[in-house]
Amino acid sequence: MQRSCEVTLEVFLSGLRKNAMVAIHQELNRLTDSGHSNWISHVHRRSSLLGSIKEETFSKEELSYVRQGEEALQRAIVILSDQEGWTVETVAANGDKVLSKTIPDIGKVFKLEVVLEQHLHSLYEELVGNMEQMGEWNPHVKQVKILQRIGPETMVTHEISADTPGNVVGARDFVSVRCAKRRGSTCFLAGTSTQHPKMPEQKSMIRAENGPTCIVMKPCSEDPNKTQFTWLLNIDLKGWIPKTIINKVLSQTQVDFAQHLRQRMANSVSLETAPVC
């Protein structure tokens, strides 16, 4: 009797997983057909963005994280594909731009749009391959630690943010599932908040929540050695902070991130080309 119930449950869960993947692919098809965004069509033509999950290689817990990452990516794609309703928050002197809009059931999201001088593969390696080193070059981040890797595209991380100047917003910590994908000439790093047994909430720090978030990198049409960089950000900092302050902090954080990333990449190039004594 117990064995029969287990088999029935497994068949039911398998059906749910297959239905979820079908729904994701249908959503991508809808976005492509509607022509909302050229980069969505580009990704769909080159290869399948949301590859099939090999269920037999993961435990139920691991598969749950994989699905969370895939769903975060799907939600981010839907938001980024809609070009209507964005409001300019700030434009830097170098042209870096942050826009925002309010999404039902999600809240306010911010979108950074910049062009970086580096090739996207170098940027992908820095942001994904060297993720745990981010605290070395981004003063807004104290620490990033990978708690668990699930396959080549999914990981669970713990991040600690730094205090803002004047301690307007104190340090926060996040536990996130991240979905990193390289498809054709476009790279993605999506994420959303999750829970993990290795990092329960700590009394000494406010646990903030994010998601969906997503970085999209693709070659510039004018110069393929440069990268069109888009960062969708959605964060609930928790605590009693006025929305006007939150909006200013988050948009400034995105502008600062672009500058710190540029400096990091420039320093990396300088180290690579320095003569060996």
TrEMBL record:
GO cellular component, one term: mitochondrion
Stretch forming the signal peptide: none
GO molecular function, one term: cholesterol transfer activity
Swiss-Prot/TrEMBL catalytic activity: cholesterol(in) = cholesterol(out)
Pathway(s) annotated for this protein in UniProt: Steroid metabolism; cholesterol metabolism
Localisation: Mitochondrion
CDD domains: START_STARD1-like
Record-annotated START domain positions: 81-270
Keyword vocabulary terms for this entry: Lipid transport, Lipid-binding, Mitochondrion, Steroidogenesis, Transit peptide, Transport
Pfam families (alphabetical): START (PF01852)
Single GO biological process annotation from the record: steroid biosynthetic process
Keyword Heme: no
Quaternary organization: May interact with TSPO.
Role of this protein: Plays a key role in steroid hormone synthesis by enhancing the metabolism of cholesterol into pregnenolone. Mediates the transfer of cholesterol from the outer mitochondrial membrane to the inner mitochondrial membrane where it is cleaved to pregnenolone.
Name of the protein this chain belongs to: Steroidogenic acute regulatory protein, mitochondrial
Source organism per UniProt: Takifugu rubripes (Japanese pufferfish)
Gene: LOC115246525
